[in-house]
Structures are given as structure tokens and as C-alpha cells.
Write a structure and sequence with these properties.
124 residues; alpha+beta; DUF1093; 3-stranded antiparallel β-sheet; OB fold (Dihydrolipoamide Acetyltransferase, E2P); single chain; 3 helices; two-stranded antiparallel sheet; transmembrane; 2 domains; YxeA family protein; transmembrane helix
């Protein structure tokens, strides 16, 4: 009798552990969390371009555009140190921003520049 109780307790504990792991995995895969993206080996590091206002410091909800001119399915938050540039090159892993650069106009891919110019025209 005691043996059956231990088995049942073990089964319940294991079932709860499996459910907890499944829920945690679902939540982490469903929501973009920059801290998780930083260490997640399944998320690759990419470079994107972001349109910002001149002199922006705290950039929130920026829409990244890749080198082919396509929008990424998430937004980025980062700090830019008071630049007069309107386009920033962002190296990121998911929503985790690892570095930013201020490219010259000639260094921005043509498809990306056209997409960013359209977005700038829509905002005006």
C-alpha cells in the first residue's frame, strides 16, 4: 500500500514537472524577451537598419528592416547616443541589441534605403 502511494506521488510530481516545462517553453517561444534571446542558441545574430529621429537617445518600438528591405516581425528598444543620423545599423539577436553603428548613406543597401525612405515619407 505504501509502495503504491509513493508511485502515485512520483507520477503526480513528474506530470506537474512536465506541465511546468511545457508552459515555460510555450511562454518563452511565444513572447520576444531580449534577455532570453541573448542566450537562446536557436536565435541567430543579424544586422538590421532602423529609422530614428535626429538626436534620438532612447529609441523604443523601432521597426528593424533587414538588408533585403523586409521588416522584422518584432520591434527593438535601445539607446543611441545623441546622433544627428536618421538611420542606425543595429546588430541584434532577436530583440536583444548587441551593438549599433552609424552608417554612411552609401553603406546602406539599396532595398533597405528605399524601404526606409518610404517609411520616412509616411511619417511626415
Amino acid at each position: 500500500m505504501k509502495r503504491n502511494r509513493r508511485r502515485n506521488t512520483f507520477r503526480v510530481v513528474m506530470a506537474l514537472a512536465v506541465v511546468a516545462v511545457a508552459i515555460t517553453g510555450l511562454m518563452l517561444s511565444r513572447y520576444n524577451i531580449s534577455t532570453v534571446d541573448r542566450f537562446n542558441p536557436l536565435v541567430s545574430s543579424t544586422e538590421s537598419y532602423v529609422l530614428v529621429e535626429p538626436g534620438a537617445r532612447e529609441v523604443r518600438n523601432a521597426d528593424p528592416v533587414d538588408e533585403l528591405g523586409a521588416n522584422r516581425p518584432y520591434t527593438l528598444d535601445f539607446t543611441a547616443w545623441g546622433t544627428e543620423d536618421t538611420v542606425i545599423k543595429v546588430r541584434h539577436k532577436g530583440t536583444y541589441v548587441s551593438s549599433i553603428e552609424y552608417p554612411e548613406q552609401g553603406d546602406i543597401p539599396e532595398a533597405t534605403r528605399m524601404k526606409l525612405d518610404r517609411e520616412a515619407g509616411e511619417e511626415s
